[in-house]
Design brief:
With 349 residues, the chain is α/β, with parallel strands linked by helices. It has 10 helices and 17 strands. A hairpin with a 3-residue loop joins strand 6 (121-124) and strand 7. Helix 1 crosses helix 7.
């Protein structure tokens, strides 16, 4: 049994990680700027700021491992978000790693993201594996959403992206997550630490944050359906993603914490995903059916910075951490729908 500090322990994913670690028999300290939404049995709760060296020093006292989730999330609205993202995500991580070095803590799990990849993996029928060319505004306006081969212009076939793919962050948030990974790798080399870099794909489940400009696609669909509207699906709805339940993500964190508590110094990335690609339209349709809402509306609109396809190869995490997803997609969507209805009734009561 280890003592584990979970930064961001009051957040959507963090609080599920806290519960999973406690259920696995670990002593857990949840560290966040804000208190948890409800009581957390058998868990020490500590309020503080990961950017503050003094707060971090107190939080790290007596800790064996750190599971780092404290971050500003979402894709960012515009360049005015740069200072906030850099301060919370990168400065906060730097302060935490410096504190870990001073405290002699050598085990880290970092909550990273699929956004570090940019576009996913593609294959051209003529040229084999190729990086996707940037999507052009003229093509998007004409409804040609799939990126072409950069060499011949042919349509590409999307595939699964592995952890050794080059990083190509394409948003403020993505850049800060890639920087967090690089900081963790430097820390592991210089401090003799061991880090698991968990690249989450699209996480959903009960407690999913909604009604915020930084919400993800599942939350945006939920808000539309609960308000009586059809979920608005951008492009043609064919964007491929990997949707993974938050409890499966929490289980991956337990496996990763237990792995980093022993072994040689290393910083190792792992995709955390279901391994089953689905389209954005699949998600919208499943949520509408679960909530008895109207059919999705495919509106053809687009955001120039969005990637078209990004789905995960999960072979590494299955082989090295012994983790595999357990929750069926449709079962998870029904659970999310029930939770969203309950939350709506509580809010309007």
């Amino acid at each position: 049994m280890a003592t584990v500090l979970v930064t961001g322990g009051s957040g959507f994913i963090g609080r599920r990680v806290v519960r999973a670690l406690a259920a696995a028999g670990h002593r857990v300290r949840a560290f966040d700027l804000r208190p948890p939404a409800g009581p957390v049995p058998d868990v020490e709760v500590l309020l503080g700021d990961v950017r503050d060296p003094q707060d971090v020093g107190v939080a790290l006292n007596g800790v064996d491992a750190v599971d780092h989730h404290a971050a500003t999330v979402g894709m960012g609205l515009d360049l005015s978000d740069l200072p906030r993202y850099a301060a919370h995500n990168d400065l906060g991580t730097a302060v935490l790693l410096a504190g870990m070095h001073a405290a002699g803590v050598r085990a880290l799990v970092l909550a990273s993201s699929m956004v570090v990849y940019g576009e996913g993996r593609y294959r051209c029928p003529q040229h084999g594996p190729v990086p996707a060319a940037p999507r052009r505004e003229a093509d998007l306006l004409d409804g040609r959403f799939d990126p072409p081969c950069p060499r011949c212009g042919s349509q590409l076939k999307p595939g699964l992206v592995g952890e050794d793919a080059p990083l190509d962050p394409r948003s403020i948030y993505a850049v800060t997550k890639a920087t967090q990974e690089q900081l963790a790798a430097v820390w592991a080399r210089e401090a003799g630490g061991r880090a698991a870099l968990l690249r989450y794909h699209n996480v959903y489940g009960p407690g999913l944050p909604r009604d915020t400009p930084y919400a993800g696609v599942a939350a945006l669909f939920l808000s539309r359906i609960l308000a009586g509207g059809a979920p608005l699906v951008f492009e043609d709805g064919g964007q491929r993603r990997d949707f993974v339940h938050v409890d499966d993500v929490a289980a991956a964190n337990v496996a990763a914490v237990e792995a980093v508590l022993s072994g040689p110094p290393i910083a190792r990335a792992h995709n955390v995903a279901s391994g089953t690609p689905r389209t954005v339209l699949d998600l919208a349709t499943a949520l509408s059916r679960a909530l008895g809402g109207p059919a999705p509306e495919v509106c053809g609109r687009y955001r120039a910075g969005d990637v078209r396809h990004i789905t995960a190869d999960t072979a590494r995490i299955r082989a090295e951490l012994g983790w595999r997803p357990r929750i069926d997609f449709l079962d998870g969507i029904r659970e999310l729908a029930i939770d969203a209805r309950k939350e709506m009734h509580v809010t309007t009561a």
